[in-house]
Specification:
The chain is mainly α. It contains 15 helices and no strands. Helix 3 crosses helix 12, helix 9 crosses helix 11 and helix 12 packs parallel to helix 15. The radius of gyration is 20 Å and the shape is globular.
Length: about 325
């Protein structure tokens, strides 16, 4: 067994031990098994893992804190450019650059969140969108640092942990991104089940009542925003490291919209929603583009409208209702 295979097996064992039931372990079993069963698809799977991590960071805001934003790509792109620029200037260790990317994205999140979270509703949406557009334009104009419209090219990273090279086949990247995703999943699961996580749910449901109970609503919303920003920056760093390229599209409104659709598709307010919604969206997008290249955006929009109207809980909501119906039918 080569080092990458051994690492994948260790990730699988850790997933099984950390999961509290077979249903929670199933996605991690599938991901680890895919490493062995589908050789040649590692680059695609790696991008799926990165987008799942990105969607999980957004779920902390949308699903748990009730902060709806259209500017989450600003933090993703900040992480990607930070990792890429550091690599160009000699700092090539993947873990070190990922940590720096998280710090940079958290700083941007702290600054922007301090202003945006004083508003609600449409004003918050517009400010989050403006933040993304502002960073997009800065990256476009600062071509000396970012490569502008051509993107950040010619970047390379050293081996993970000093031993596992990020090879062209993407086997190390597969294990590396899966391990990062799993660690983030465990962290978020602990966070949302902590008193802090329950206070976010209370703020989402009724912030006035939480304020009356003595809860500092603004500081908790800001803390959630900074944490989500750091995790989005990590996703951006992984994207830069595994593709060795940073495109200007990493700061685009389209990316913010797509990750929100992925989350709605799977079911927001549940960490497993991202695990379902992201691969379904990416495979459906690919299939629709092949079947009807001229109108696939139309079909994507119709599917989203249908889910919003008839299945507001996403795919997981449909599954939950179906399971409850089966339980009622099988009961006494």
């Amino acid at each position: 067994m080569n080092p990458s295979s051994a690492s994948s097996a260790r990730v699988l064992v850790a997933a099984l031990r950390a999961s509290s039931g077979p249903l929670q372990a199933a996605p991690w079993l599938a991901a680890a098994a895919g490493f062995f069963l589908f050789p040649g698809y590692e680059p695609l799977a790696t991008q799926i893992f990165v987008m799942i991590l990105f969607a999980m960071s957004l779920d902390l805001l949308v699903g748990y804190a009730g902060i709806v934003t259209l500017g989450h790509a600003a933090l993703f792109g900040c992480g990607a450019y930070t990792a890429g620029i550091l690599a160009l200037h000699g700092m090539t260790d993947p873990i070190a650059t990922a940590l720096c990317a998280m710090a940079a994205a958290a700083a941007v999140g702290l600054l922007s969140g301090s202003l945006m979270l004083k508003t609600k509703g449409l004003a918050l949406l517009m400010l989050s969108l403006a933040t993304t557009e502002l960073l997009h334009e800065i990256a476009n104009k600062a071509a000396f640092w970012t490569g502008g419209a051509d993107g950040l090219q010619g970047i390379s990273f050293g081996p993970v942990l000093g031993e596992f090279a990020l090879d062209f086949r993407g086997r190390t990247a597969y294990v590396y991104s899966l391990a990062a995703l799993f660690i983030v999943y465990l962290f978020l699961r602990a966070l949302i089940n902590s008193p802090f996580g329950w206070s976010l749910r209370g703020i989402r449901e009724n912030d006035a009542r939480m304020r009356a109970l003595g809860c500092s609503v603004f500081s908790r919303r800001l803390a959630a925003y900074v944490i989500a920003s750091a995790l989005a920056g990590l996703a951006g760093a992984l994207q830069a490291q595994t593709t060795q390229f940073v495109a200007l599209d990493s700061l685009s409104f389209e990316l913010s919209g797509n990750v929100l659709i992925m989350l709605i598709l799977g079911g927001s307010g549940r960490l497993t929603g991202a695990l379902i919604g992201v691969p379904v969206f990416m495979f459906a997008q690919d299939a629709l583009a092949k079947q009807d290249p001229a109108n696939w955006y139309l079909w994507q929009g119709l599917i989203l409208i249908g889910l919003t109207l008839f299945a507001p809980g996403g795919i997981l909501g449909i599954c939950s209702r179906a399971w409850r119906a089966l339980q009622r039918r099988g009961g006494p």
